Amino acid sequence: MAEPVISTDIPGLQKFVTGKVRDVYDLGDALLLVATDRISAFDVVLPTGIPDKGRVLTQMSVFWFEMTKDFLPNHLIATDMDTIGQRLRDAGATEITSELVTQLEGRSLLVKKCKAFPVECVVRGYLAGSAYNDYKTMFGHGGTVNLYDIPVPVGLRESDKFPQPLFTPASKSHSGHDENITQARAAEIVGQAAFEELKSKSIALYTKASEYAAERGIIIADTKFEFGEIDGQIILIDEALTPDSSRFWEASDYKPGRPQQSFDKQFVRDYLLTLDWDKTYPGPQLPAEIVEKTAEKYRDAYRRLTGRELRTEA
User: Fold this and answer.
1) Helix (H) or strand (E) holding 98
2) Which residue intervals of 167-277 are DSSP H helices?
3) Which of 6, 52, 58, 3 is nearest to 33 (CA)?
4) Are 22 and 100 in contact (CB under 8 A)?
5) I need a labelling partner for 37 at 20 to 30 A (CA). Which of 6, 29, 145, 265 fits?
6) Which of helix, strand or coil describes residue 115?
7) Closest among 269, 224, 260 to 243, alpha carbons compared
């Protein structure tokens, strides 16, 4: 297995933002988003990386950006290293070696700058994760309960499908832990008109992607979108429909009433729950077998959904 890329360094440029997964460089009129192989669990970035994880996130996002661009514009400018290399030099990069190109290849997005909406646009097709935990604490009246102020049936089991997809926005937190909020609160944050458009576009994107994935044996249980605005136009930004921003399930093994076989980092979370770890920094090292199995889950999701092999070399 290739060595994971835990951090990047472009001589002559300073990182604009270092996120849980991405290193972001400000290139003046554009940004360079570099998806590393870092992995986080329980809001802690672990010391062990997952080889090719960043390439899966980047190339899968590009796949969805291309599929949906006629329906909804996005922030993507380029992914090829010739264009990216020139923009790096224009921004002041002093040395672009073959080693750096190899490191950045397949995991880098040159994107437009925009004003990002300060809410996460979450769409849930199935009852799982934090929604399931919140649902278990509620009591129904008249056959329904209000999950984030949205009426849903009582008596649902873990992993049950909702009658229709739910739009359950979340607030962005500087601490890295997003908080589920009501639609009314989201509308207060972004304005009613923008909220209605974000909701409509999110549900439409989820529906389109879910139908496509179902034909390839994958259930998209839920996903998270981010949107920005340029000259009054709403565009899709960040990543889209990846194993980090979505819950992908194996359709052939789907059975409501229990957790599902997944293609995301739930496999890592499940392993960590077997340890005597208090979910605070620093996180534990992952053993080689967990790293290898997780890497293959990410690659398998990419192959299944795109029908392509992962691009790993310049």
Assistant:
1) helix 98-104
2) 183-190, 192-214, 266-272
3) 58
4) no
5) 29
6) strand
7) 224
- What is the signed CA dihedral for 247, 249, 251, 252, rounded to 10 degrees? 180
Cα(214)–Cα(305) distance, integer angstroms: 9
> Which segments within 36-94 are labelled E, that is strand?
40-41, 44-45, 76-78
Which region among 36-40, 76-80, 171-175 has the lowest average model confidence (pLDDT)?
Answer: 171-175
Which residues are within 8 A (CB) of 170 and not within 5 positions of it... i.e. 6 or more apart?
A: 119, 120, 122, 178, 179, 180, 181, 224
pLDDT of residue 179: 85
The three-state DSSP-derived secondary structure of 147-182 is: ECCEEEECCCCCCCEEEEEEECCEECCCCCCCEECC
Taking Cα atoms as reference points, which of 27, 26, 51, 25 lies closest to residue 38? Answer: 51
> pTM for the whole thing?
0.94
Contact between residue 117 and residue 226 where contact means Cβ atoms under 8 Å apart: yes
**139 with 238: CB under 8 angstroms?**
no
- Asked whether 59 and 301 are in contact (CB, 8 A), the reply is no
Other beta carbons within 10 Å of 31: 21
Closest CA to 160 of 269, 260, 242: 260
- Summarize pLDDT for 271-304 with one digit per residue, the tens: 999 999 999 999 999 999 999 999 999 999 999 9
- Each residue's pLDDT tens digit, 163-200: 999 999 999 765 556 788 999 999 999 999 999 999 99
CB 8 within 8 A of CB 23: yes
Confidence of residue 267 (pLDDT cuts 50, 70, 90): confident
In this predicted structure, what is the pLDDT of residue 144? 83
What DSSP character marks residue 71? Answer: T
Tokens representing 37 are 């192989």
What's the pLDDT score for residue 145?
84
